[in-house]
Amino acid sequence: MAKITMVEAVTMALAHELEHDKDVIVLGEDVGINGGVFRATSGLAQKYGEDRVLDTPLAEAMIAGMTVGMATQGMRPVAEAQFLGFIYPMVEHIICHAARMRNRTRGRLTCPLVIRAPYGGGIHAPEHHSESTEALFAHMPGIRVVVASSPSRAYGLLLAAIRNPDPVLFLEPKRVYHLNKEEVEDDGEEYPLDMCFVIREGTDVTLVTWGAMMKETLEAADKLAEQGISAEVIDVATISPIDMDTIHESVAKTGRCVIIQEAAKHCSVSSEIAANLADQGLYNLNAPVKRVTGYDVIMPLFKLEKKYMPSVDRILEKVNQVMEVS
Predict the structure, then answer these.
(1) 266: annotated active-site residue
(2) Where are the domains of the chain?
(3) Which SMART domains match (predicted)?
(4) In this predicted model, what pLDDT tens digit does every residue of 193-236 receive, in sequence order?
């Protein structure tokens, strides 16, 4: 079993589905000959042919329209938006057609497509290359939003996304594409969608996060352990729909919750989780829910990017605040 990075896990999952399902098509800008901006599709066109791994023009709206058309006619297209910040020309097709197809046709047509998008900051890129706007899509009924946080989950969740009968936006935090390696077996075993993963068990506080922020959250949990604070760490993974049952079960045990996200704070996924805890889990809480987030500004360029990103120290500050409440 090989140790691979997250981007290699994405490539492995795509290759597995291309190999085992003739209806799977990969398409996008530079995904074929060049293997994609981040080389997530490297070697796939050479192995499976240019009729299965399609280079498209630089036209995101066209890519999304083609993807919807393929999906409604029995294919399973996997399209790449080079960056989440480039996805907005695709939104009309994703929201007005892909997300509504099952309802519009009363179940006669489904739309089994995947839109892959590298996203998030931390690599010193311009603002359209650094956005974390997952809440825009999580708000829309009819589309799943899935976020990978490790090589093994990238592999298993992408397999599940491709096999799902409904549209999935699959977000890949590029800051952790090459961060670490894990042993991942190319066995075709998918991970369940619509489910949180308890990454570390604890008894004193629940830390809820997803995507690239898993790194800082786990580092914070290590430091808290040195202080005698036992932190349970949850990877939300599917942010629409959110598996609140797992979060409620954890908070019922710990009594405290801190939510960590890279995205801006206002009207965000962390807002929804916090509201749900207040609505349905208030009596399990021994302290107010705290959030560690990005700021309500466009990602600042370069020198201020690190300041924008939630840090281990900011997580520890919020945990210490909730631990002070008796």
Answers:
(1) no
(2) 3-183, 197-324
(3) Transket_pyr
(4) 999 999 999 999 999 999 999 999 999 999 999 999 999 999 99
